[in-house]
């Protein structure tokens, strides 16, 4: 069956009324989590994961995609109306979105954000749909040596780029690697570091770790933050149609195209994520604009640049996840958890063995962004009301849902307790100025990396033989080069008086 | 201020301690007889790498103490509400340890009411508000229980009494 036929079949499956209903709900939940500051897209996916247990793999993954898309684009609502980014991805949306709203153009700013979120997503999903299968064909030929090289490359990149400080990034990742060592070792099944606790035989569960790191820690952080009164929410009326004229849309196309490319590229690279892509394309748009002085005072170009880029990042981030099984950021890490729950292993084999799931995700992406466009355009009034839910009621309720989610993975309270442990680790990381992203990715990829290494050494007898594989060499030496570059760069920054 | 000032010392000492522990534990693991690297290889590599990097971080931190102090003098003081955080953490810990014996519904209601009050702004801690919070916690708990029981087929711990619905 060729790709188009598979895509067509997937669309038919996705458009089944029950599936549409679930995705509709998923997008709305995603938008709510995205819009409320303190709740994030990764939290939304974490909480939805246990709910997909009883669904089929295709439907389950589609719901997660829906939540992901809603979560990333929902952040623009509070960024524009509250001057508080709902998610990290929409930090740069505040710069121009909020001034626009203050000038009485709130509805226009939202329309720009929503429409160009859609445009950015469409661009990246088209790229994903037609490019990922080709890449998977290549990745299928990889041996354990190449896979080890890619894991090594991805983890090094994440450690450096996610934290901006080499030592702290590597250390936070290494703690994640330590936690992968708990339980039975790959290949020979030796029991390690369980301290006689039978619950730890299978290692720490992926889902409980992720819920702890992303959700529980966020609750502790919110608990200690002092609230400075209620922020003022700007009122909006729903726009007529999509709220933009054709001329306004056409004018932004070059800007959107450039931002979408930036977003896509950053999405593919591991460890950077939506917040950087939004910032980077905002700065690029400002620098290449004919009127950079208007930026920051309510220039629609800024909103367009950020929102196009952070949504284009979604499609980019799904590429390494689907093709190699390596998540690039927090949300895709959660998606990997989703694959594991449904007994699927993300990676090139997925395209051969579970093509229905892969094409289901492609089709779901397209359908979900359309739902997102419609829901956000006409439902904005209701989402604004949700911004008024007080934190002291919201956060404990989320915590209860986290515990239920952790419990549901294996029906044991041990998982709930370990979730709290990881929540405390996430909180301490925050206090120590360490990033949790390297921890999570090392935790997820570390086990795979050890398996590949030991399998590779079984095949090739020694580690030295890995270097005879050119693709391994490329990834290995590029990773080493990036480490050296970041050491040089941080030294130079320090000489210029920047404190790291 | 405390965290900003000492966070690198704390992180490096924490990582040194945990890596030494890891190396020690890895030495107790059996070596592989069939191939060059066994189950003890990865833990040892991780432990040793962590130890080297953590010592490096400690040295750099000590060397750069002055530099950072000048920068910190300019930084704005941070203001945290540790009381709320610690109370919440204690409540959460009690909650997860009583969930199994007491059961989901009861333990959740017991957890939610004080947790709402701990996080509530001071001016909202009156009787009227408290009654509202009690009602919210009971309704929320029951909705979650029923949703998971019948919607997602997940049976939460029943604890002291079994509910037959």
**Distance between the ends of chain A:** 54 Å
Task: Compute the average pLDDT of chain A.
Answer: 84
Strand content of chain B: under 5%
Class computed from helices, strands and strand pairing of chain B: mainly alpha
Gross geometry of chain A: globular
* Helix percentage range of chain A: over 70%
* Global structural class of chain A: mainly alpha
Count of DSSP-assigned helices of chain A? 19
How would you summarize the topology of this molecule?
The complex is a heterodimer of chains A (500) and B (165).
Chain A: H1 3-14, H2 17-35, H3 41-48, H4 57-82, H5 91-139, H6 144-163, H7 166-180, E1 183-184, E2 191-192, H8 206-224, H9 246-251, H10 253-268, H11 274-287, H12 300-324, H13 330-341, H14 348-353, H15 355-386, H16 391-410, H17 413-432, H18 436-460, H19 470-495
Antiparallel strand pairs in A: 1-2
Helix pairs in contact in A: 1-15, 2-3, 2-4, 2-15, 3-4, 3-8, 3-13, 4-5, 4-12, 4-13, 4-15, 5-10, 5-12, 5-15, 6-7, 6-18, 6-19, 7-18, 8-13, 8-16, 8-17, 8-18, 10-11, 10-12, 11-12, 16-17
Chain B: H1 2-27, H2 41-63, H3 65-74, H4 82-102, H5 104-119, H6 127-151
Describe the structure.
The complex is a heterodimer of chains A (500) and B (165). Chain A has 500 residues and is mainly alpha-helical. Chain A has one domain. Chain A has helices at 3-14, 17-35, 41-48, 57-82, 91-139, 144-163, 166-180, 206-224, 246-251, 253-268, 274-287, 300-324, 330-341, 348-353, 355-386, 391-410, 413-432, 436-460, 470-495, and strands at residues 183-184, 191-192. Chain A has a two-stranded antiparallel ribbon. In chain A, helix 8 (206-224) packs antiparallel against helix 16 (391-410), helix 11 (274-287) crosses helix 12 (300-324) and helix 16 packs across helix 17 (413-432). Chain A starts with a helix and ends in a 5-residue tail after the last helix. The model of chain A has no long low-confidence stretch (mean pLDDT 84). Chain B has 165 residues and is mainly alpha-helical. In chain B, 73% of the residues lie in helices and 0% in strands. Chain B folds into two domains: 2-74; 82-151, no CATH class. The model of chain B has no long low-confidence stretch (mean pLDDT 82). Chain B has helices spanning 2-27, 41-63, 65-74, 82-102, 104-119, 127-151. The interface between A and B is large, with 61 and 72 residues.
């Amino acid at each position: 069956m060729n790709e188009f036929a598979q895509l067509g079949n997937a669309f038919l499956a996705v458009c089944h009324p029950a599936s549409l209903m679930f995705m509709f709900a998923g997008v709305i939940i995603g938008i709510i989590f995205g819009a409320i500051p303190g709740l994030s897209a990764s939290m939304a996916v974490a909480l939805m994961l246990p709910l997909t247990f009883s669904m089929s793999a295709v439907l389950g993954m589609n719901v997660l995609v829906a939540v992901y898309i809603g979560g990333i684009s929902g952040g623009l609502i509070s960024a524009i109306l509250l001057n508080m980014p709902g998610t990290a991805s929409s930090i740069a949306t505040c710069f121009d979105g909020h001034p626009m709203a203050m000038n009485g153009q709130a509805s226009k700013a939202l329309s720009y954000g929503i429409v160009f979120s859609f445009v950015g997503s469409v661009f990246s999903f088209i790229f994903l749909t037609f490019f990922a299968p080709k890449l998977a064909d290549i990745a299928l030929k990889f041996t354990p040596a190449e896979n080890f090289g890619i894991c090594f490359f991805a983890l090094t990149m994440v450690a450096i780029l996610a934290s901006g400080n080499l030592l702290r990034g590597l250390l936070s990742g290494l703690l994640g690697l330590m936690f992968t060592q708990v339980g039975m070792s790959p290949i020979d099944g030796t029991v390690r570091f369980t301290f006689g606790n039978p619950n730890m035989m299978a290692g720490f569960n992926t889902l409980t770790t992720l819920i702890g790191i992303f959700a529980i820690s966020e609750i502790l952080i919110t608990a200690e933050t002092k609230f400075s009164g209620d922020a003022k929410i700007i009122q909006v009326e729903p726009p007529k149609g999509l709220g933009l004229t054709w001329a306004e849309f056409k004018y932004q196309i070059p800007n959107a195209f450039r931002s979408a490319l930036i977003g896509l590229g950053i999405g593919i690279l591991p460890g950077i994520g939506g917040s950087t892509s939004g910032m980077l394309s905002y700065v690029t748009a400002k620098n290449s604009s004919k009127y950079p002085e208007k930026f920051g005072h309510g220039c629609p170009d800024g909103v367009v640049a950020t929102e196009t880029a952070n949504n284009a990042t979604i499609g980019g981030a799904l590429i390494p996840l689907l093709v190699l099984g390596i998540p690039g950021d927090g949300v895709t890490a959660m998606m990997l958890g989703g694959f594991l729950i449904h007994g699927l292993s993300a990676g090139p084999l997925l395209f051969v063995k579970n093509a229905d799931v892969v094409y289901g995700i492609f089709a779901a992406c397209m359908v979900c962004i359309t739902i997102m466009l419609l829901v956000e355009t006409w439902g904005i009034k209701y989402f604004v009301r949700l911004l008024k839910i007080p934190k002291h009621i919201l956060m404990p309720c989320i915590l209860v849902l986290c515990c239920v989610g952790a419990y549901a993975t294996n029906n044991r309270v041990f998982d709930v307790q370990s979730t709290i442990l990881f929540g405390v680790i996430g909180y301490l990381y925050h206090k120590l100025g360490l990033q949790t992203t390297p921890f999570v990715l090392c935790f997820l990829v570390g086990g795979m990396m050890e398996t590949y290494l030991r399998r590779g050494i079984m095949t090739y007898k020694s580690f030295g033989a890995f270097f005879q594989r050119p693709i391994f060499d490329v990834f290995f030496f590029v990773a080493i080069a990036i480490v050296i570059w970041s050491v040089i760069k941080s030294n130079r920054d320090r000489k210029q008086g920047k404190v790291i | 201020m405390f965290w900003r000032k000492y966070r690198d010392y704390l992180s490096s000492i924490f990582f040194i301690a945990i890596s030494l522990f890891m190396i020690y534990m890895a030495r107790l693991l059996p070596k592989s007889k069939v191939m060059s690297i066994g189950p003890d290889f990865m833990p040892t590599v991780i432990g040793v790498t962590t130890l080297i990097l953590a010592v490096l971080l400690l040295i750099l931190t000590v060397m750069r103490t002055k530099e950072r102090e000048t920068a910190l003098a300019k930084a704005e003081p941070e203001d945290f509400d540790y009381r709320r955080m610690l109370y919440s953490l204690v409540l959460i810990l009690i909650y997860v340890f009583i969930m199994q014996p007491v059961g989901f519904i009861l333990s959740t209601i017991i957890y939610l009411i004080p947790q709402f009050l701990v996080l509530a702004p001071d001016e909202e801690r009156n009787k009227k508000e408290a009654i509202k919070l009690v009602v919210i916690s009971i309704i929320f708990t029951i909705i979650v229980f029923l949703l998971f029981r019948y919607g997602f087929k997940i049976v939460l711990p029943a604890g002291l009494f079994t509910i037959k619905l």
